[in-house]
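Protein modeling request. Please complete all fields; requests missing the sequence field cannot be processed.
Requester role: graduate student
Desired output: 3D structure, token encoding
Chains: 1
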Amino acid sequence: MKSAAPFAPRTDVYEVITNRIILALENGVTPWKQGWNAAHGAPRNYRSKHVYQGVNAFLLGMLKYETSYFLTFNQARELGGCVRKGEKGMPVVFYKVGKKEDAKGQEKKVAILQYSTVFNIAQIDGIAWKLPELTSREHTPQEAAEQILAGYVGGPRIQHEGSQPYYRTSTDTVTMPEASNFHTPEDYYLTMFHELAHSTGHSKRLDRATLTEKAAFGSETYAKEELVAELSAAFLGNAAGIDMGLTLPSSASYIDNWLQALRNDKRLIISAASQGQKAANHILGIIPSYEAGEAAEPTEAPE
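Delivered output (303 residues):
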């Protein structure tokens, strides 16, 4: 009698995604410092037109393809095409809402993190691609950045003084050095976005625990709040069309710090990217469908 085949180990989605980010950092690529495709904008699904959010935007944004459109293997087949043999895809995560019973036997909704694999349309043959006509920007990235600053409804007071940027919760104030003190205008705006991202965590706004809890410098809570602000600044920078290549490159110590943090907490990047997206959306005045709905977590449908 044959023995039963052992169960395959359950895929740890957090490890899959975190390992992708770690690999990029080890190769000198900081995913959240890679700009979106300048012509086509943020990474999106070709079929559904869904714009990828959170960590998915960074995973796909660091792939340097001519266009920023993606499909799953099955979607490509449904459109009459096929992924070329040997092509490697990129995982994207989504929350599948299910139900389970709690200790009292009552049914409740739970969000289970899963992932699927998508391919850039450059990796797919057999489809007559119909891409939208590209429109030129009517303003410069710096003007767009200023519009974002002006459009932050109910934001903190901003003052320019000193040599160090920081956000002070007690006074709800962002303090910035003068723009002339920065290496480039792009560095100035990304730093401003970073400090404004911190302000979204104030108890009168998103009430983010990593900001409202008292956390010592260097603690896990402090590190997560810093990553939330870093990722939020990247979302805002890309929304403004800022060229990330014009900012100062990441230092070795900067990359080492994030590598250590990610290795210590496999859930950090997904959680921080989700919170960073919420912070950016708050500043931009955007209420995405996944926040307006009833999902237990920010949801990306399995395209």
